[in-house]
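### Sample
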Amino acid sequence: MSAPRTVEIAKSLPPRLLRFFEKYPPPALFPDLASRPSNLLSTSQATAATTTIISTTPPTDTNAQMKETSAPEVLPVPSNAPRNSNIPPEAHNLPYPNPFLPHKNFATGRWQGPAYGLRKQADLVKLASEHGVVDLLPWTIKKPGEKERLRTERGLQVKGTGEGQKVKGKLWERTLKGRLEMRRQAMLNMPALIQEWKQKGHGRGWKKWPSGKAK
């Protein structure tokens, strides 16, 4: 996007979006973060290190002017967010913790919730969609098309086979096929088992008690 076009769009943005982009610069400013070494930066440090595209004078000035500045090189925050298979890797490639995802505070060793709840995320996405800048927001499940993408991925999953899944299911699911086959063979051998039971005195000295455990 050209510089004049960026300034024109910035002039039309509501104050709520301007405040958000001042605190969390658009990820489009840092397209090559994935190829750079990681460095620990907090949200405040990343905001101080980056210069936002737009800066405004106080709203009381009717002739407020907007100026464009350059964004210096910023190193990304290490991957400190929980690795969920439903979250794309680019959601973490930011010079600051994604405000829409939980992250770990290395000073305290504790996890912190997202800076914006789901309702506020949805409000920001709706507002950004109205002004055509939704692509400048960090990744969030509330972005258009994300829920449809998850439905498509889940529709390709085949339970018990691992197809489309990173975990093939619980233990009872993984051993279900073998147990069903063992039961089928036991039913086929049932007449011979009954005959042997009768010949050995109806259980006297019986050693081969059947087991229902899968082998």
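The longest helix spans residues 118-130. This sample (Large ribosomal subunit protein mL59 domain-containing protein) is used throughout the tutorial notebook.
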